[in-house]
Task: inverse folding
């Protein structure tokens, strides 16, 4: 079990691929660095056992944020016809709750994916100095 997140020794990004084996091949996805796993810089984590748990924790936080905004998001989905609903005495009644929930989960996954992808773009720009 890891108690560290591994980063590139040349540019410092955590966007590295490495074998779990000692002496296993490692390479950076951002710059041109290649080497072995032991050359990666390990940043210890005190709160989480491994980077997978960090990802799980971030995902959970994103889901919580989306849930906080879910009333507004469902209204938007209804307004644009993605989720069926009826209006009873000014009260919005969601007819397809399963679809609404699927969209809310998809929105949370999309936000998480966007954050990770943007972070990687920012890293690339930082390293290439543009
Ligand atoms: Zn690198």
Result:
């Amino acid at each position: 079990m890891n108690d560290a997140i591994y980063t590139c020794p040349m540019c410092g990004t955590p966007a590295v691929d490495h074998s779990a084996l000692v002496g296993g091949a490692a390479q950076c996805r951002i710059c041109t660095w290649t080497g072995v796993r032991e050359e990666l810089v390990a940043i210890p984590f005190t709160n989480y056992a491994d980077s997978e748990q960090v990802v799980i924790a971030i995902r959970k936080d994103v889901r919580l944020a989306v849930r906080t905004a879910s009333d507004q998001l469902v209204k938007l989905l209804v307004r644009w016809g993605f989720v069926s609903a009826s209006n009873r005495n000014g009260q919005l009644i969601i007819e397809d709750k399963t679809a609404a929930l699927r969209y809310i989960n998809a929105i949370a996954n999309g936000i998480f994916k966007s954050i990770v992808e943007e972070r990687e773009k920012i890293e690339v720009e930082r390293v290439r100095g543009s």
